[in-house]
């Protein structure tokens, strides 16, 4: 899976940020994604990988289901805990890609890795 907004994530920054706040991601990750009681989204450590496919799955499925599908933590963040599933709260994949585009604007170096999964369970 790939983010259709990768060519211009900056154009989605504001709308993606609004959605990020509307889904209460900020309660755990901070308003700008810098972390808080949960891992920062702005640093180079990506627990399961920085690529689009993995990040989409983590947010939609949550930690428990992602691990059931064979993913393992490949990096340890400052905080280790389960991410809840948002697949039923975020109604469309389009909305989720917009949120991910916002995260990319907060973590520009991760753009280099959107197509390189750190792991590909089941393949
Ligand atoms: C209840 C707290 C909580 C909420 C709400 C939450 N997260 Fe998370 N998130 C976590 C935790 C804890 C982790 C670490 C998961 C792990 O280690 O398995 C995480 C991990 C992540 C990661 C991977 C970070 C990394 O460094 O690899 C992303 C991306 C992410 N969350 C995005 C979101 C988005 C987008 C939302 C809103 C739709 C959201 N989170 C809502 C707790 C939360």
Automatic annotation (TrEMBL):
Superkingdom to which the source organism belongs? Bacteria
Keyword Mitochondrion recorded: no
One Pfam family it belongs to:
Cytochrome_CBB3
Which residue ranges does the record assign to the Cytochrome c domain?
A: 11-107
Keywords recorded for this protein, A-Z:
Heme, Iron, Metal-binding
Gene3D superfamilies for this protein: Cytochrome c-like domain (1.10.760.10)
A molecular-function term among this protein's GO annotations: heme binding
Q: Which InterPro entries match?
A: Cyt_c-like_dom, Cyt_c-like_dom_sf
Q: What is this protein called?
A: Cytochrome c domain-containing protein
